[in-house]
């Protein structure tokens, strides 16, 4: 019997609230948010991680199928 694993990529939205310099432009703010996102250290004022919201599933053309070995 054929056994496969299907990888279904999804798009999620992370919300990161940061206090920024009034003079910072949008690119500076995005770069700072990216540093926090990559470090995993983006908690809100209550010490909780900001929510991650499901957005959508990618089109089936980008789904991947991996054959599983029968043992």
Largest sheet: 2 strands, antiparallel
Rg, Cα atoms, Å: 19 Å
User: What spatial form do the alpha-carbon principal axes imply?
Assistant: elongated
**Total number of beta strands:** 4
- Fraction in helix: 10-25%
Helix/sheet category: alpha+beta
Order the strands across the largest sheet as they lie in space.
Answer: 1-4
Distance between the termini: 11 Å
What proportion of the residues form beta strands (DSSP E)? 25-35%
Mean pLDDT: 87
Instruction: List low-pLDDT spans.
Output: none
Task: Give a written overview of the molecule.
- The chain has about 70 residues and is of the alpha+beta class.
- The protein has one domain.
- It has one helix at about 25-40; strands at about 5, 10-15, 50-55, 65.
- The radius of gyration is 19 Å and the shape is elongated.
Helix-strand layout with pairing:
Layout: E1 4-7, E2 10-14, H1 26-39, E3 52-57, E4 64-67
Antiparallel strand pairs: 1-4, 2-3
Brief write-up:
This protein has 71 residues and is an alpha+beta fold. It contains one helix and four strands, in the order E-E-H-E-E. It has one helix spanning 26-39; strands spanning 4-7, 10-14, 52-57, 64-67.
Q: What keyword list fits this structure?
A:
alpha+beta; 71 residues; two-stranded antiparallel sheet; 4 strands; two-stranded antiparallel ribbon
């Amino acid at each position: 019997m054929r056994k496969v694993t299907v990888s279904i990529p999804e798009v999620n939205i992370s919300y990161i609230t940061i206090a920024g310099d009034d003079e910072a432009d949008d690119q500076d703010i995005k770069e700072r948010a990216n540093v926090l996102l990559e470090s995993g250290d983006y908690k809100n004022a209550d010490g909780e991680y900001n929510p991650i919201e499901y957005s959508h599933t990618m089109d089936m053309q980008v789904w991947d199928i991996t054959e599983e070995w029968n043992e």
